[in-house]
Each structure stands twice: as C-alpha cells, then as structure tokens.
C-alpha cells in the first residue's frame, strides 16, 4: 500500500506540474461545453427563399407576406422566372424556390384549386426537409384562411383537433438534448485520451523500463495510473454539471447520487479503454491516432447527434457496443426526465461489463517483460 | 558461485530474421567489475535486457545470483540495479523526488542506504530541487546511478553509462564504479569505448551477437599472436593505399597519426620500409609497438 500511495503522489505531482495539460483538462471541457451546444443547434431558422411570382395578384402577395412573417424564412430574391431563381440555389444564395404560377388567384377563386411549385436544395438534408415542411405548413395555413374556404362557413364536423405538449423538455429546446451528451463526450476525451497518453509517454521516454525492473506489482502500477485520472474525471464531470447549470440552467431532475454512480463506473470503463490502447501502442502519436479512431466512432454513433433507434440494425449493434451510447442515454434520462435508479440499472450493468472487460483485457495484455 | 551466468543464450527479433544475441555463454564472478565491450548493435543491450528480466531469451538460460531470469524474475528484480543506456528517470520530477520514488518502489528509503550513494549523491545534492530534465548530462548520469543503487543491489547493470558524457565525467564515473566494487557489488558494464575496457577486471569482446573473447584486458592483449608495427609517412593516405596492395602485409588500418600493420610470415619490417621509400614515400618511420585492446578487437573481428 505504501508503494501505491507513493505512486499516486508521484502521478498527481506530475499532473499538477504540467500546467498546459492541467489547464487543458479543465479549460477544454468548460469552454467546449459553453460553445458547442450553442453552435450545435438543429432548429432550422433563416431558410433562404427565392420567390418567383408569375401572378402578381393580391393573393400571391398575401402568401409571400405570410411566409415572410412566419419568422423562419428570409426572402433573398424575387426572381422573374424559375430559371433565374434556380441560379440562386446553384450559387447557394437560396435554399428554397417557391414558384407561384400565372393565374394563381383566378384559379383559386374560380376553380377552387391551384398548384404551387417548391424546389429544395437537398445538399443539407435536414435543412431541406425541415425548410420544405415549414413552407408547406405556411401554405396550408394560408389555404385555410382563404375566403373561399372560410366562406363555406360551417366547419366540417368530426374534424380531429390535435393539441400536444413536449414532455421533459417543454420548449423542445435543442440545448437540453445536447448539453448532457456533450458533457459525456468531454468526459470520454479526458478519461480515454489522458490515461492512454500518460502510460504511452512512460514507454516513449523510457521510464517504464526503469519501473519494470523494480519489484513493483502489476496491479499497483495500473491502479497508480487509473486512480489519478478517475479523480480528475470526476472533478471534470462536476465542473461540467456546474457549467450546464450556470450557463444553460440545466439542473438534473433526477438524483445526483445515481448520476455520480454512473459517472464513476463509466470512467472506470473509459480508463480501461485508455489503458488498453496504451498496451498496444508504443508512442504517443500512435496512441493518439488509435484513440481518435475510436472517439470518432463514439461521437458519431453514440446517439449524440442522431437517434440510435433510427440507425440501421448493424449500426445499432455497433452503437450498443460503445460505452458512450449507454452513458449518453442514461444521463439524458436522469438529467431531463428524472429517471430513478430502478429505471436505468440495466445500463449500469452494461457499463460495468465494459469496465470489467476493458480493464481485464488491458491488464492481461500489460506485460513487464517483452 | 558466479554472480551472473549466461548459458547458450540466443535472442532474435522479427521472427528470427535479426539475430541480436547468438549462442552466448559467459560467467561473471562475485564482486567482479565486468565489461561488455563492442560496437553499437553488437547485442550488448539485448543481453542486459535479458539479464534484467525485461526480455525473454529464445534459447538458453541465464541466472543472476543463482536466480533464473525467466522463472525467478521477481527475486531478481529486487536484487539488481539497472541503468539503461537512455536516460529514463522522470524528467518532470526533481532530483530528490526521483530518488525518493525509486527508493519507495523498492520498499527502502534514501536514509537506509545513504552510505552507498553518499559519494555520488553529495555531488548532485545542491540540485536537489531541480527537475531531472534540466540537469547536465554528467549530473543526469550520476542521478541515474544513485537511483539504480538506492536499494543496495547485489548486482549492478550499467548499459553504456558513459556514452555522451564528457571526458572528465567519464573518469569520475569509473572512479565511482571502483569504489562501489570495493563495497562488494558485482558490476556488469557495457561500453563502446575501448579505452574504458582497460578499467574492467575482465572483459568480453562482443561483435554481431557473438562473444569473441573473454579474459582480463591484459591477457587479451598478451594473446595478440604477432608483432604489431606502427608506420607513418608524410602522405599517410597514399601510404595506406600502397600498404593495402602490398603482399607482405597481413592487416593494416589507420590509427591516429600512424598506420598499424601486421606482417605475413617471412616478411620483415626493414625491407618493407625500404620498399616504401623506393616507391617515393617521404619520411617513412616504422616501429614495433605493444598492441592495445582496440588492436586485439580489430584482429578478432577480422578473423571472425
């Protein structure tokens, strides 16, 4: 135990001595947590619209005004023809083209029927789909208020009237969804990267050689590496929660104890992952690349941006094979929904399995002799 | 009992493609100052790593103080001190912290074995609070030696301890080794410098993973089988080219301002000198000299 205590002392001493790394460990999560969720906003606003009005009637003007008043669209051009309007899309100056055909008002009044053309730039799929449907919604609304429809008086009976409310995130604000997940990601970076790089550095500098000829036990050395980063990780996690509350007003609905239990187990799993990388690599550069490879997968497949449920089956399998997915799921449940331990304990089981497998594999693979 | 025994040790890398150590057997006596002398890439470090339990040999067995290097690695690790060729202490820890750290790992303390390291430690003590990375080369080497000694090892392995260290520090270092030897510690040291070989009690000349000769430096020199001559002229390079084409010459190589040569049977140095002068070499001087360890090494190397 005396040896372990001294190992920890040495480890902390080194961490606190490297001011750059120390600053990065605390500044990085804070800054990123403040900036990233603001930028990672999936609410579609400022859809750029080019209008081709071939009718120039009061109806067409009403429709264009209504679209402008909705707040989601910015009319960037009123083009004389569809062909010129399309050039705006080609130059990326417009996302949508709305074409109002000649005789728009006349046909509506006389025939009670008229078609509209909407062309969408689908390079940015999300923006295209959402922008398109917003525009459709505005047109439908416009349609309802037309005298031809309102004049018909008596609303049709049996119309289903939908009222709806957002649970757990009343205003459906994206930040509530993203902030807890970004926090998990930052914890992953600290836990996975720092531990891997730290051990590989000992290999690179050659100090591990000197350690290996001492009678120090394998478990002492490994614990001596894991504990400091576990502690740092917990501090970063706390810091992250504080930022989430201070900047975004996100205060976990569920219990802190459950949250911290999960964070603790998650960090053990992550540190095992870092340790595993370090046993297979010989330089910090190698470790960095391998860690990056996995962190990219973690980021894109863990449900941080996209819902795991809507992934194809094979991707779902991969997603479930990363510890990150489970923790992101849980942290959202606890923070936003207030899920209790009974609701989330299966996920804890998953994380525990990750912790045991990753650490066991790493310890098995760590050898003092080559 | 021998402190270190190597018995037909072979080590290869890259699935047997590179042979680092080729069937090496040797013994180091208790309390001996033993030198492994050979050029870079001769296999010295591989041997050290096998003896310090960091590397598993492919074939053969090795023991340190009677403990097997593979089976009893734990017993060995607490009984040896190892100073790798590359400085491998924590550069971001101070002198004192490094020393404390390694003492603790061995379940000891600086005070416990202070006597052993006093002479060396006193020299770096003024820099106790300086980080190891900021020390000069000679200081680093002294600190590394202190760290290797802090647990009072029975056998000390020093892998090229004087490489990259200035002449004065090298001299000091060998004086330190001598005093350590007097305290009963067996020391195995490797070096690529031939002049340092003379400071060892016994040496092994190693080349290409093979041991060429093991003996005291004096004996190795005494075994030099023929007379060695040193010869020079005004244009030393022209002389060397001429000698290389001379049938009477057995071997010739430049050595400082002279060319060292050995002759074939039946040739004699005076005739050779005359021949050279006749060929237009000015101021040819030749004399018989006592071979050095380097001459022995070169001769053994050429025979192999």
From TrEMBL, chain A:
Bilayer-crossing regions: 21-40, 174-200, 227-251, 257-277, 289-308, 348-366
Family matches, as InterPro entries: ABC-2_transporter_component, ABC2_TM, ABC2_TM_bact-type
Membrane topology of the entry: Multi-pass membrane protein
The entry's keywords: Cell membrane, Membrane, Transmembrane, Transmembrane helix, Transport
Pfam families in alphabetical order: ABC2_membrane_3
Family listed: Belongs to the ABC-2 integral membrane protein family.
PROSITE patterns attached to this UniProt entry: ABC_TM2
Annotated protein name in UniProt: ABC transporter permease
Keyword presence, Membrane: yes
Compartment(s) of residence: Cell membrane
Domain ABC transmembrane type-2 as annotated: residue spans: 128-369
TrEMBL record, chain B:
Residue ranges annotated for the ABC transporter domain, each copy included: 4-233
Organism: Chitinophaga hostae
Transmembrane segments: none
Keywords: ATP-binding, Nodulation, Nucleotide-binding, Transport
Pfam family, one: ABC_tran
MF term (GO), any: ATP binding
UniProt name for this protein: ABC transporter ATP-binding protein
Family: Belongs to the ABC transporter superfamily.
Source domain of life: Bacteria
Gene3D superfamilies from the UniProt entry: P-loop containing nucleotide triphosphate hydrolases (3.40.50.300)
Keyword ATP-binding in annotation: yes
InterPro entries tied to this protein: AAA+_ATPase, ABC_transporter-like_ATP-bd, ABC_transporter-like_CS, ABC_transporter_ATP-binding, P-loop_NTPase
């Amino acid at each position: 135990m005396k040896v372990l205590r001294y190992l920890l002392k040495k480890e902390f001493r080194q961490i606190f001595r490297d001011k750059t790394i120390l600053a990065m460990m605390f500044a990085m999560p804070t800054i990123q947590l403040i900036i990233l969720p603001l930028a990672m906003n999936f609410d579609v606003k400022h859809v750029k619209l080019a209008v081709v009005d071939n009718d120039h009637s009061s109806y067409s003007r009403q429709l264009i005004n209504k679209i402008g008043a909705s707040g989601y669209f910015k009319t960037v051009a009123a083009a004389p023809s569809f062909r010129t309007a399309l050039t705006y899309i080609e130059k990326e100056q417009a996302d949508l083209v709305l074409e109002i055909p000649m005789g728009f008002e006349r046909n509506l009044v006389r025939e009670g029927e008229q078609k509209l053309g909407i062309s969408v730039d689908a390079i940015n799929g999300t923006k295209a789909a959402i922008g398109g449907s917003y525009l459709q919604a505005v047109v439908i609304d416009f349609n309802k208020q037309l005298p031809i429809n309102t004049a018909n008086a008596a609303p049709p009976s049996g119309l289903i009237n939908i009222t709806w409310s957002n649970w757990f995130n009343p205003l459906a604000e994206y930040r509530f969804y993203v902030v807890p997940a970004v926090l998990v990601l930052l914890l992953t970076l600290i836990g996975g990267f720092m531990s891997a790089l730290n051990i590989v550095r000992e290999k690179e500098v050659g100090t591990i050689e000197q350690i290996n000829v001492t009678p120090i036990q394998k478990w002492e050395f490994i614990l001596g590496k894991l504990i400091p980063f576990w502690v740092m990780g917990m501090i970063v996690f706390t810091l992250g929660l504080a930022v989430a509350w201070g900047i975004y007003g996100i205060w976990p609905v569920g219990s802190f104890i459950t949250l911290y239990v999960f964070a603790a187990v998650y960090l053990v799993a992550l540190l095992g992952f870092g340790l595993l990388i370090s046993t297979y690599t010989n330089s910090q550069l190698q470790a960095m690349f391998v860690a990056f490879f996995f962190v990219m997968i973690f980021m894109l497949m863990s449900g941080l941006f996209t819902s795991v449920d809507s992934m194809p089956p094979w991707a779902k399998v991969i997603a479930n094979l990363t510890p990150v997915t489970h923790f992101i799921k849980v942290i959202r449940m606890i923070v936003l929904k207030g899920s209790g331990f009974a609701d989330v304990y299966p996920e804890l089981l998953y994380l525990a399995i990750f912790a045991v497998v990753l650490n066991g594999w790493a310890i098995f693979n760590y050898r003092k002799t080559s | 009992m021998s402190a270190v025994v190597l018995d037909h040790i072979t080590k290869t890398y890259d699935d047997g493609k590179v042979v680092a150590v080729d069937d090496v057997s040797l013994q180091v006596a208790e309390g001996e100052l033993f030198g492994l002398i050979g050029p870079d890439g001769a296999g010295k470090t591989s041997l050290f790593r096998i003896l310090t339990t960091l590397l598993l040999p492919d074939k053969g067995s090795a023991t340190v103080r009677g403990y097997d290097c593979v089976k009893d690695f734990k017993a060995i690790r607490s009984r040896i001190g190892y100073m790798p060729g590359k400085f491998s202490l924590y550069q971001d820890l101070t002198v004192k912290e490094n020393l404390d750290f390694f003492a603790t790992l061995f379940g000891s303390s600086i005070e416990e074995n202070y006597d052993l390291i006093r002479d060396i430690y006193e020299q770096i003590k003024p820099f106790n609070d300086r980080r190891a990375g900021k020390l000069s080369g000679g200081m680093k080497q002294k600190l590394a030696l202190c760290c290797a000694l802090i647990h009072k090892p029975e056998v000390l392995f020093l892998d090229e301890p004087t490489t990259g260290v200035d002449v004065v520090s090298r001299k000091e270092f060998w004086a330190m080794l001598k005093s350590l030897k007097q305290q009963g510690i067996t020391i195995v040291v490797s070096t690529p410098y031939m002049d340092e070989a003379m400071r060892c009690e016994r040496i092994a000349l190693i080349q290409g993973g093979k041991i060429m000769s093991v003996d005291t430096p004096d004996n190795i020199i005494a075994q030099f089988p023929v007379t060695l001559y040193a010869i020079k002229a005004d244009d030393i390079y022209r002389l060397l080219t001429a000698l290389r084409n001379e049938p009477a010459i057995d071997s010739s190589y430049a050595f400082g301002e002279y060319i060292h040569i050995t002759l074939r049977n039946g040739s004699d140095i005076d005739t050779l000198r005359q021949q050279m002068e006749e060929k237009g070499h000015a101021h040819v001087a030749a004399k018989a000299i006592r071979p050095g360890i380097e001459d022995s090494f070169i001769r053994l190397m050429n025979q192999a």
